[in-house]
Amino acid sequence: MVDLNCDLGEGYGQWTLGEASDDALMDLISSANVATGFHAGDPNLMDRVVRLGVERGVALGAHPGYRDLQGFGRRVIQAKPEELVNDILYQVGALREFARRHGTRLQHVKPHGALYMEAAKDETLSRLMVEALLKSSPDTLLFCMDVSKTCAVAEAAGLPVIREFYADRDYDRSGSIVFARRMRPLDPAEVADKCVRACRDGKVRTVEGDDIDIAFDSICFHSDTPGALAIGAAVRDGLLKDGLRIVAAADLHPQTR
């Protein structure tokens, strides 16, 4: 079994980002990361995506980012870790209220973009974030990379984690993704093969040309990647044809069953 997740609700007002609609992408996934207003999203979009997720049976998570609409949250904003954690809690709380409105709960929290990558290497930021989530959302899953400081800190503290594999990002030798602000077009079939291999063999090819071990519970693709709909469909089809079941992340974690 594996979870398949994607970032949704990443427009703002009359502006949209990416080629595919949230409606179309929602049909491919088991977990949705909903933008919470700082890097993208607004109250009306949050409400719509939550309602859509409930209708389609897709689990929902908050996707908090840096306060950076212009840069889409993919630029590092210099701020104290305590300030960033308050921003995260503010955004998580906002989406939680929309979830309650529609009779559901938040399955997970997944920081967005540069904030996700900064936490991955910053033990202090990860620790403060985990401590805050343990008090406010102790049963909520935290999405992160297996090799990240975030994962190590959360596991040590007892906060349930879901480790991610990135379908549409490259990996380096450290087991981390190569961060990209803009993505080149990708071949959906090649991306699907990469995901199936990672599930079957636990291996991924790095930008240096090596094969490394990779451990994960959920596969992510991004809604703003060119050809996202075709990529998501190819990954889903490839996983199912290889005999995998696509389930929500909560079904993979004993603490949340």
From TrEMBL:
- NCBIfam families in the record: PRK05406.1-3
* One annotated GO biological process: carbohydrate metabolic process
Give the protein's recorded name. Lactam utilization protein LamB
Query: Which Pfam families does the entry mention?
Result: LamB_YcsF (PF03746)
